[in-house]
Specification:
single chain, alpha+beta, Immunoglobulin-like, Alpha-Beta Plaits, 3 domains, 15 strands
Length: 674
């Protein structure tokens, strides 16, 4: 057992530690802090890099040196505009890098600034002419949490932050002023009853319609994704144990995660069209890859899906559980491999045991809950052209199936459904409908929210899906791209090693590490399940009292108003997606040529990490925040107006909830710019 552990550690260290790190000279703190150089009037920041953060040990300015005690070293630095700074840096463990958004000179971008153990590196003087909040990032792979090794550098006066706070309040006030004028069934001035029949758009429509009605469209879209996921599983189990050097991590948790968030807004549940996870089970149950099976007997035991599981509770809690382990999930390939391998097997089992519908996708998949919830804020929807035509047509091929298509595998009546929550966009209804009455529609964000929210009664599952997603979006932005390394370390359980199947034994936390993880878990679950929902309930109660309505229970307002988080949350997640993409876009492209992280360059796409204008992130994220806030307030009014059927009461309730939405916006503004 001991020998196996030694081999495991050796394999991992070969991936993690450059050769020059071994037996390196250890720089004493006295040697580091006793700077023999004359830096003139420059401010000197004594910085220590370690797995996985930066700590300021001392600051020297105007001839005075302030040394911070052990355990209280800050990771947020402040510099005056026009200031001149020299960074005197050491590494506490392995080789790290040094990169400041917007300030690292072009001359060193290709020849990275490396901080090697046993060496004192001096960077500068750097002249900080542009005020704002900038990130100091590690530019050299140093372990599993390397992509999230971040410190904050604030160049004062950071005028953008107070300006952003003011703009957030102004946008909120302007939106409230707009809804005070009783806009009937509108979203930010755009009528919600207008839409575009995408399949009737000249040139594009006929081509798209023919493509979606082609029997093999599902198979053609799923197979490439299935091959990609097979590489994900292979690399997860057998590839490089360091996450940003492994295909499974960078493709799933950088490229796929960011793409899906954007795709929800633009394409609703289009990912469900492409998802390969249920493919094996569905093909086996139907005994076809893509043709319509005429024989009634299915390859399935055919048990009926339990009605009590016909909701979003499992997806919501599954997603939350993944969030409790997210520092491992998004950095350790073997954990990603185990999770997705489990999902493939579980989907297959459910297809073989239960009726051949998409029970796994609808009621189990952790992505289904949030994709379905947020898709009601999408600009795309599968709808009937004329509901009356569907209602009068008794054969109901969209439910029973036809020679051209299966009945809806998502257990819907396609001709009559008016929300995106459970429509997986498999397009079987477009194929099976003999009346050509099903289509794709483009519409304004939030068209369905008022109707869905007003009718919400006991849908705590969907409400908590919204609460979990909304709070986690802000929390992830704060923790993974903020300087609070100690919070990351709690969730990471203090383990500095990556892991594949051969080195999975390294993910064995100590009792002390588990104690820290429980703090992380309580923090994440407490905020998502108790803290923010509790605050939301209090504001719902206040909105009821201020509106003067006594015959509507607070619970109904609590559930109904939660649907305004669907658009708000997805815009915050898209903001988070840009943090992932702009900083780490080079990792997925490199992984295409080196999926196992063994140093290959199969297609010539492998190159060094190079962020794309990360200093522009606050300016990209700001409009997303403001648009999400404005739509959330307008959606709240539309829901309230349907519930109360009285403009004055609806506006008063909206005003109260608008205050809460504005508070959340101010918190996110602080995270990205404060």
């Amino acid at each position: 057992m001991i020998n196996k552990l030694r081999i495991t550690i050796l394999i991992t260290l070969l991936f993690l530690i450059p050769i020059e790190n071994v037996n390196a000279h250890v720089v004493s703190e006295k040697e580091w802090l006793n700077d023999p150089h004359d830096h003139g009037d420059a401010k000197i920041i004594y910085l220590k890099a370690y797995q996985f953060g930066y700590a300021v040990k001392a600051i020297q300015e105007d001839g005075e040196k302030r040394i911070f005690p052990d355990g209280k070293e800050p990771s947020i630095m402040e510099v005056e505009k026009g200031g001149k700074v020299v960074f005197r840096i050491i590494s506490a463990d392995v080789t790290h890098g040094f990169y400041i958004d917007g300030y690292t000179p072009d001359a060193v971008k290709d020849n990275k600034i490396l901080i090697k153990p046993g060496e004192i590196i001096e960077v500068g003087p750097i002249f900080f002419d542009d005020p704002g909040k900038f990130k100091l990032r590690c530019s050299e792979t140093c372990g599993p949490l390397h992509p999230f090794m971040v410190a904050d550098l604030i160049v004062k006066p950071n005028t953008y932050f107070p300006v952003l706070l003011i703009i957030t309040v102004v946008v909120s006030a302007m939106t409230l002023l707009y809804v005070s004028r009783a806009p009937k069934n509108k979203m930010l001035g755009i009528p919600l009853d207008r839409d575009i029949d995408l399949l009737k758009v000249r040139f594009i429509g006929p081509i798209l319609k023919k493509f979606l009605q082609w029997r093999g469209v599902h198979f053609a879209l799923i197979v490439p994704n299935l091959l990609i996921f097979m590489v994900v599983l292979t690399s997860g189990f057998f590839g490089n144990p360091t996450g940003n050097m492994n295909f499974s991590i960078v493709i799933i948790w950088i490229l796929w995660l960011a793409a899906v968030e954007i795709l929800i807004l633009l394409g609703a549940r289009t990912w469900c069209t492409l998802c390969p996870i249920p493919a094996f089970g569905e093909w086996l149950a139907r005994r076809r890859f893509y043709g319509v099976h005429k024989i009634r007997k299915w390859t399935s035991i055919g048990k009926k899906w339990p009605n009590k599981l016909n909701n979003m509770w499992i997806p919501a809690l599954f997603f939350l559980t993944m969030s409790l382990f997210v520092p491992w999930l998004v950095t350790r390939p073997v954990v990603t491999g185990i999770v997705f391998g489990f999902l493939f097997i579980l989907a297959l089992i459910i297809y073989l045991v239960f009726d051949p519908k998409r029970n796994f996708c609808r009621n189990i998949c952790p992505a289904n809950g949030y994709i379905g919830y947020h898709s009601n804020a999408s600009i795309l929807a599968v709808r009937s052209r004329n509901i009356n035509t569907c209602n009068q047509h008794t054969p109901k091929e969209c439910i029973r199936g036809s020679p051209k298509g299966y009945g809806c595998p998502w257990k819907l009546y396609p001709g009559g459904h008016k929300e995106n929550t459970y429509c997986g966009q498999c397009y079987e209804c477009l194929k099976s409908c003999p009346l050509d009455n099903m289509t794709l529609k483009l519409r304004m964000v939030g068209q369905d929210l008022a109707r869905i929210g007003a009718k919400a009664k006991n849908r705590f599952d969907e409400a908590y899906t919204g609460f979990i997603r909304f709070t986690v979006a802000i929390f992830y932005e704060l923790v993974f791209f903020g300087p609070y390394f100690w919070i990351k370390d709690w969730g990471n359980m203090g383990i500095i090693y990556g892991a594949n199947l051969a080195t999975i034994g390294l993910l064995s936390p100590t009792l002390e590490a588990l104690n820290y993880w429980f703090k992380w878990a309580l923090m994440v679950a407490g905020i998502a399940l108790i803290g923010y929902p509790g605050l939301f309930y209090i504001f719902s109660w206040i909105s009821k009292k201020l509106s003067g309505v006594n015959d509507i229970p607070t619970k109904q307002l609590f559930l109904s108003f939660s649907y305004a988080l669907a658009p708000y949350g997805i815009f915050l997640w898209i903001a988070f997606a840009f943090s992932l993409l702009l900083v780490n876009w080079s990792y997925p492209i490199s992984a295409i040529s080196d999926p196992l992280g063994y140093g290959w360059n199969l297609f010539g796409t492998k190159f060094e990490w190079q962020p794309f204008s990360p200093e522009a992130l606050p300016y990209i994220q700001t409009p997303l925040l403001l648009l999400g806030l404005a739509i959330a307030i307008n959606a709240t009014y539309n829901i309230a107006e349907q519930i109360f059927n009285n403009h004055r009461q609806a506006f008063r309730a909206t005003f109260v909830m608008g205050v809460l939405h504005t508070m959340a916006g101010l918190v996110f503004a602080w995270v990205i710019a404060g």
